[in-house]
């Protein structure tokens, strides 16, 4: 199929999916989740593909959902999970659940998936990266979910499964970005390498995986995945996806949207991430 938001290439038993909106830092728009899933399914059908690598074009992996133009608009046609009030959580859930499942095609794939992260994998970009089996980062790349401070919850909820409760709470409650070097130190990333050596670091992992028979890769991946699925991964994701909609329609979430309309998305984000009290006009409860 023709892709509008990514590039699809295969060579030497490897499928490379490149997020390809570099002018917007590969930000996620409506077509991208569907196209990621379609590309993964195409690689699944290809008997010559043993490994799937996901990376970003341009300066980074993915800057998250393309929210700037949506957050600064006051009309109801934002397309970013915003609705005219009263808010219908079932409509919000249906849209975001579909995105979650599209990203999770990387987890469900019978073939190993590798996220190759340079620059940054932020917010929804971290969702894509953490749905892959392996995360390999440049030392100076950054990963995190800043909207967890206000206006979002990571719907695939992979942080806790990757890190355990304490480290997951730290990153999800603070919205902090951490470097590739720190991500490798705490076990979030498999490895980190200097930016100039990132291709080689991913290549060494790919070289070890692509020589393994596809049936063997499938069996070992399923053994690991089912352990997490039996721990309630799907239920966790349903709760996270519902709460993501709540976060965008809480008093503080509405304040953030209104603030972005007033002063611009960039300034609203700076205020959100400053460490000062958020939404000062919202009454204390």
Instruction: Give the overall form.
Output: globular
Strand content: 5-15%
Binned, the helix content reads 40-55%
Helix segment count? Answer: 13
What's the gyration radius in Å?
19 Å
Mean pLDDT across the residues is 93
Structural class determined from secondary elements = alpha/beta
| Strand order in space, largest sheet | 1-2-3-4-6-9
Q: Which consecutive residue ranges, at least 5 long each, have pLDDT under 50? A: 75-80
Distance between the termini: 51 Å
Profile the largest sheet. Answer: 6 strands, mixed
What features would you highlight for this structure?
285 residues; three-stranded mixed β-sheet
Q: Can you describe this structure?
A:
By secondary structure, the chain is an alpha/beta fold. It is 47% helix and 14% strand. The protein is built from 13 helices and nine strands. The chain has helices at residues 31-45, 68-71, 89-103, 105-108, 124-130, 158-163, 165-174, 180-185, 198-210, 214-230, 233-249, 251-263, 265-272, and strands at 6-11, 14-19, 51-56, 113-117, 120-122, 134-138, 142-144, 177-179, 191-193. A six-stranded mixed β-sheet has the order 1-2-3-4-6-9, with helices on both faces. A three-stranded mixed β-sheet has the order 5-7-8. Helix 12 packs across helix 13. The N and C termini lie far apart (51 Å). The model is unreliable at 75-80 (pLDDT under 50).
């Amino acid at each position: 199929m023709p892709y509008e938001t990514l590039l699809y290439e295969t060579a030497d038993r490897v499928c490379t999916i490149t997020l390809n909106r570099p002018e917007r830092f590969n930000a996620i728009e409506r077509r991208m989740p569907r196209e990621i899933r379609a590309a993964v399914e195409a690689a699944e059908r290809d008997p010559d593909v043993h490994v799937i690598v996901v990376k970003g074009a341009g300066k980074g992996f993915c800057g998250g959902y393309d929210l700037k133009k949506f957050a600064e608009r006051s009309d109801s046609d934002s397309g970013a999970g915003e609705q005219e009030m009263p808010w219908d959580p079932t409509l919000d859930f249906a849209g975001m659940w579909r995105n979650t499942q599209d990203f999770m095609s990387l987890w469900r794939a019978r073939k190993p998936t590798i996220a190759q992260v340079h620059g940054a994998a932020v917010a929804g970009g971290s969702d894509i990266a953490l749905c892959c089996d392996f995360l390999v980062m440049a030392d100076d790349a950054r990963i995190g979910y800043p909207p967890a401070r206000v206006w979002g919850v990571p719907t695939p909820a992979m942080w806790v499964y990757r890190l355990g409760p304490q480290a997951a709470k730290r990153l999800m409650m603070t919205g902090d970005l951490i470097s590739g070097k720190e991500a490798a130190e705490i076990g979030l990333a498999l490895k980190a390498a200097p930016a100039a050596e990132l291709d080689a670091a991913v290549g060494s992992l790919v070289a070890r995986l692509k020589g393994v028979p596809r049936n063997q890769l499938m069996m070992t991946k399923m053994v690991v995945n089912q352990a997490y699925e039996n721990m309630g991964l799907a239920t966790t994701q349903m709760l996270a996806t519902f709460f993501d909609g709540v976060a965008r329609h809480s008093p503080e979430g509405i304040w953030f949207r209104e603030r972005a309309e007033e002063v611009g998305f960039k300034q609203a984000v700076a205020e959100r991430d400053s460490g000062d009290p958020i939404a000062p006009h919202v009454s204390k409860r």
